[in-house]
Design brief:
By secondary structure, this protein is α/β, with parallel strands linked by helices. Helix content is 41%, strand content 15%. The protein has seven helices and seven strands, in the order βαβαββαβαβαβαα. The longest helix is centred in the first third of the chain and has 16 residues. It comes from Microvirga arsenatis.
């Protein structure tokens, strides 16, 4: 049982920019290296810019496997990394997000902008509605995700996140905690991505 690896791939959502603090990129590098060293594949948005490109390059630099999924209209804006083992060009954002979901065992949100937020919240919504049990984690470097956590608490207090429909997510403040937290959650809950198998709960 000790050789069982519950997480074989992680979809990382993060900014196409670097942010104003070098610590964001440093954490992206550390996460990418940790994934490669543990044999965990990266699924990401396909570009070479910002934190997206940083985490992907770190995985590649340490011998890991990367799957990039990018919509056709972004190919000219975000140059693809040449060494990525698998690049999938899709017609639109909806197809991209669906493939990222299907190819990942877990989701990690690093700091980013509105696109990162949208992808993170969508996975939280799908989980809340019983579409999957894959772990979702926010890496809250320097408290980056604290305002979102405050908003979620406010929604709960105002009765919009009701008992029985709680949000399932993890929050790590240190990059070293990310993979152990995901693996513990996967062992505890199991990973189900087949909505027919779990919608019977609702």
């Amino acid at each position: 049982m000790s050789s069982f690896k519950p997480i074989k791939s992680i979809c990382v959502y993060c900014g196409s920019g670097f942010g104003d603090d070098p610590i964001f990129a440093e954490n992206a590098v550390t996460l990418g290296r940790s994934m490669a060293e543990r044999g965990i594949n990266l699924v990401y948005g396909g570009g070479n810019v910002g934190l997206m490109g940083t985490v992907a390059q770190a995985v590649l630099d340490h011998g890991g496997y990367v799957t990039g999924i990018i919509p056709d209209f972004l190919k000219s804006r975000e140059k693809l990394l040449d060494d990525v083992q698998e690049t999938i060009v899709v017609p639109d954002m909806h197809t991209r997000k669906r493939l990222m979901f299907e190819k990942a065992d877990a989701f990690v949100a690093l700091p980013g902008g509105i696109g990162t937020l949208e992808e993170l919240v969508e996975q939280m919504t799908w989980s809340q509605l019983g579409r999957h049990t894959k772990p979702i984690l926010m890496l809250s470097i320097k408290g980056f995700w604290k305002p979102l956590l405050t908003l979620i608490a406010h929604m709960r207090e105002q009765g919009f996140i009701r008992p029985g429909l709680e949000l399932n997510y993890l929050v790590a403040e240190r990059v070293e905690e990310v993979i152990p937290m995901l693996e513990n959650a996967a062992r505890r809950v199991g990973i189900v991505g087949n909505e027919e198998a779990i919608e019977s709960r609702f």
